[in-house]
Amino acid sequence: MNVSVSVFKHKFFLLLAIFILWTVLSVLQKPVFLLLYVGGLTQAFAVMCHGLPLDLSIAGYLSAIPALLLLLSSLPQRFLHSVRAEKTMGRVIRGWIGIGAVLFALSFVANLALYGYWQFPLDSTPLFFITSSPKDALASVEWWQTLLGATLVIGLAVLIYRLFCRLLRRFELRVYAPLPLLGGLAMLLSVAALFLPIRGGIKVAAINTGAAYFSDNTRLNHAAVNPLFSFIESMNRQSDFAQQYRFMDDKLARRMSAPMLNPLRPSTSPAADSLLAEKRPDIYLIILESFSDTLTRQKGVTPNLNGLKKEGVFFSRFYANSFRTDRGLVSILLGYPSPATVSLMKYPSKTAKIPSFPAYLHQAGWGLNYYYGGDADFTNMRSFLVNQGFNSIVEDVDFPVGERLSKWGVPDHLLFRRVEKDLAQDHSVRPRLRVIQTSSSHEPFDVPYHRLRDKKLNAFAYVDSCVGGFVRHLKTSGRWQRSLVILVPDHLGAWPDDADNFKSWRFHVPMIWTGGAIARPCVITTWGSQQDIAATLLAQLGIGRHAMRFSKDMMDPAQSHFAFFMMNDGFGMIDDENEVIFDNQLQKTVVDTGRLKGKNIPLGKAYTQTIFDDIASR
């Protein structure tokens, strides 16, 4: 009996030691994050305490395989193969520890590296980017950053693996011996107890990242979140749309959101609100990488865009729907409020069922062309575009190797030059939609242009100069009078530094319509988001009947006008009466201003829930 008790103690304390070591390693991540992104350790104890439930959960996950093997080894001797079985179990546990060490190190380093740009804890986005196009996923990373990151991951993984190997050597002389019935039952209970930290206790709902949120300071909350837990949670909710953002009864959500949706009828705008003098223009939709309204107000950075604001139609209360390019493209082209917690481009079967304004233009006789200097397979972009009817997609491989000068592929001046070349060879009278997606104003900001000292601002100034050059080309080519040029960013990017995801200016972007097809210059002060480009444009072109229920005609006074955007993880809604931003992790409204405070909180919740219901139904 004494021998059995000793064997059980070895098994139990080994399992406990594995669990505690994973927990300690998780807790030790917090001070590093605080030093890098908060600037001190004054809140370290609070961050560690509030993040502990997630750390315990990850420790439980990473201890599960060793726990099951220790339980298996507790079976009577006749079910095992003595020494051979013990060696196999030892190798499997070491192999699992090695995998866990790599995952732990990778999530820790990736979170530290990406947080400065994304401002939210690690999720599944990097995996989607890397699997769709590794070259473009690494394009914004300098070689030394890649080398440093790889070195840190390998070094940390090796260190963690060696710590666990030393731990195993202290126990494994007797740890794989069988146990009698009572000892086996005790071991079963010990292993089953792991499900408590994994689920976060005995609650009905499993623990989520929101359990770590405790402060009005967003960075302290993010410091408390375990990055590996955040990644796993993000992977689990990628396709579970119907269970996300459940604020109220579905019927109530549909009833509350109905007035905010497109009534699916022709626009009732009076003729005086027509922005276009030409009803079948050539359309140039220029999607500007990472530009923001704040950027255009920096002296000397965007003189061309600022000039075009005055000679065209400037939408002054316009917002990006999200914070990444793949989300922005969904909102712009599909007229759809792309959810921030998942990239819809990852699901071509769903995006193919959502109508798009290029598809409606194609049905009405417009040809479709897409120009991008990078890899069109990045983030499933090719399938996304083909489903809309783009039969001509120009990408990096369509340029000479000598012109692929940047990490993202082709610099923007060469991209615009290719469009100009194609225009010179196009003698068709058929109108066309040409989408031009820029990329040079993205990390690492290496551009063939040197006007401003600040590397980031210089890159934006370069793209601005490319846009100005293209507009001048249209004016001198004889095409200007029948041209409609729409300029809109995909999202705010790397400037200004440390943009707060829970501030509305983070999503405020300029939209400009210009060209000879514009009837008169003016400023539109109607609230709107990228999702509203589709319905507004189609209405101006006389294509009023469409099934884009989330896109509103910004020139139709009969429709409900508001700006809507999503961050990770929450939403914002602004109209003339109320601006609200809701943090879904905190389950708290963090911004509520205007003369009717609180009005948009239930409306925003209903609208967000309706979006996810719509995605789930497709």
Strand order, main sheet: write it out: 5-4-6-1-7-8-2-9
Average pLDDT, rounded to a whole number, is 84
Query: What distance lies between the first and last C-alpha atoms, to the nearest angstrom?
Result: 62 Å
The number of E-state strands comes to 14
Structural class: alpha/beta
Shape: elongated
Largest sheet, strands/sense/barrel? 8 strands, mixed
State the share of residues found in helices, binned by percent: 40-55%
The number of helices is: 22
Q: Which spans have pLDDT < 50 for at least 5 consecutive residues?
A: 268-272
User: What percentage of the residues does DSSP assign to strands (E)?
Assistant: 5-15%
What's the gyration radius in Å? 28 Å
